């Protein structure tokens, strides 16, 4: 438990505030309680709804369970992250699809011709994919917590190595690894300080 109290000015139920925000931590150990395919599907179905620019939805997810795929993934994970990644029930590789434009006729039909517009400019497409997938990463982490599971997001891995290992012949570019499961013993490090309102916020 933390000493952070849910904000009574927020209409979200205080228990949900705690689960999603004030009491949530990055998990570093996991139990062997399984995470079902149905839970993973429910997480995606929740995370897909918040906004992205032009509804591009470039986030792509590779779920890796223990086995041959996990062994391949671990070769690209930083040593300090390897043990917890090896023992998590599921690892999500979150990636940005730089070929998101292929779906624009479906997801953004109100502007015909945008698929061709982005097809002609790979540099702009890459930036848009990474920015909007980054937004969706945040939504995805909240969806994991909403499912009653713990998330362990990590940037300590060789993204190019992961891309070459799993995403050849695609436009997917890995952004983040997220261990997913039920927290195990001593799962949490002490919460580090957060910046306060007056340090972060200005009014114009």
UniProtKB/TrEMBL annotation:
Residues 25-182 form the Nitroreductase domain. Its EC number is 1.1.1.298. Keywords: Flavoprotein, FMN, NADP, Oxidoreductase. InterPro entries: Nitroreductase (IPR029479), Nitroreductase-like (IPR000415), Nitroreductase_HadB/RutE (IPR050461), RutE-like (IPR023936). GO terms for molecular function: 3-hydroxypropionate dehydrogenase (NADP+) activity. It is an enzyme of class 1 (oxidoreductase). NCBIfam families: PRK05365.1 (NF003768). This is Malonic semialdehyde reductase.
């Amino acid at each position: 438990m933390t000493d952070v109290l849910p904000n009574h000015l927020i209409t979200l139920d205080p228990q949900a505030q705690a689960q999603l925000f004030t009491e949530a931590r990055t998990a570093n150990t996991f139990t062997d309680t399984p995470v079902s395919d149905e839970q993973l599907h429910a997480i995606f179905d929740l995370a897909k709804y918040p906004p992205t620019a032009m509804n591009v939805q470039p986030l792509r997810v590779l779920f890796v369970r223990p086995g041959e795929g996990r062994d391949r993934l671990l070769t690209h994970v930083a040593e300090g992250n390897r043990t917890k990644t090896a023992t998590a029930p599921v690892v999500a590789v979150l990636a940005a699809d730089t070929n998101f434009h292929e779906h624009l006729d479906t997801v953004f039909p109100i502007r015909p011709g945008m698929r061709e517009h982005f097809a002609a400019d790979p540099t702009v497409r890459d930036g848009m994919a990474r920015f909007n997938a980054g937004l969706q990463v945040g939504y995805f982490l909240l969806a994991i917590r909403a499912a009653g599971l713990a998330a362990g997001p990590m940037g300590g891995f060789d993204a190019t190595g992961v891309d070459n290992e799993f995403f050849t012949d695609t436009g997917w570019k890995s952004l983040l690894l997220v261990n997913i499961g039920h927290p195990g013993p001593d799962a949490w490090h002490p919460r580090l300080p957060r910046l306060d309102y007056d340090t972060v916020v200005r009014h114009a």
